[in-house]
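Review form for a predicted model. The reviewer records the input and the model, then writes brief findings.
Reviewer: anonymous (R2)
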Amino acid sequence: MGHRNIEVKVEEVDYHRNGIGGEGFHIIKFQSRDDGEGEFQDMIGIVFEEAMTTAVFNRRLLGNGEIRFMHNSFRGDVFDLHLRRGITAWKIEQDHEFNQTCKILEISCDSGQPHKAHYQLDEAAQIKSDGGQGIYCPGLSAVL
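Model under review:
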C-alpha cells in the first residue's frame, strides 16, 4: 500500500459507463504534490469500482503523448483513497443538484414491469431519464 504523504486537490470528477458492456469508471482531474512541498502537478486519475484499481497520469505528459511506464506512471495505491473521497463528495453534490430539479416517477413499460427511476421534463416537456436504468419503453406512461 502507498505510504507517501501527498496533498491532493480534486478539480473535476465525471463518470464514464464504458460502452454497454465494459466496466464503468470515474475520471478525475486533480492536482497533487508530495509532502506539501513544491509545485502542484496537474494529474488525471481513472478509478474503477473495485478498491485499489486506480491509474494516475500527469496531464502535461499525456498531452505530449507520453504514456510509457516509468515516464508517466504513478502509484495508484498512493492516490486511491484521496480520489475516492473526491468521488464521494462529487456524488453528494450531484445528488443534491439532481434532487433540486427532478421528480421520482413510476414508469410502466409494454413489458408490464414497473420501474422507478429519476426523470425530469426538458424544455419541450419530454421525459428524460437519468440513465440509471437505461429503460427504453415504447408506449411509455408516467404517473406522478
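Findings: The mean pLDDT is 75.
Further findings: DSSP finds two helices and eight strands in the chain.
Recommendation: see findings above.
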